[in-house]
Input
Amino acid sequence: MQNNKLLTVSNFIILVTILMYILQTNMDNGSLFLGLNIFFLEANLWYQPLSSMFAHGGVGHILMNMFVLFQFGNLIEKYRGVKTFLILYFIGGILTSLLSFAFMQMMGFNHNLVGASGAISVLLGYVALVDTYQRNGIITWIILISIVPVLIGLPVAWYAHLIGLAVGFSLGKFLR
Output
């Protein structure tokens, strides 16, 4: 009996993320309620470090993130198991959200952080740790997707990418 390659936890998370994006875009102030912002502290919206991983800044943003999640989430799930993938994606993603929020507060940024990019960067950091052949390419890619958009004026949470990369690399040391 052959396993259906579409029935993976990674693909389920992609489906949930798409459904949450539809919810976000169809509710009043959906991005503010589901993103990570000052309301995390001021309005006690403690769910935001998690919900921000499902909210996105547009169709292009979600498509790009879900494409990378499809590739690397399924890769980790297949070769390292569902448990490792879930720890990396959710624990690493929430930790990345919290560290990104702390960085925003420290720098005086008043942004609304949305997207799975931080959690996906955790996955990439993990792959960079365990697959030394891909390490330089992954690190270069994270730096490019963090810096180039900022240079051309796009609002990208570059720090979430870099923090996620470091979190993934660090978490990976415990998951080996």
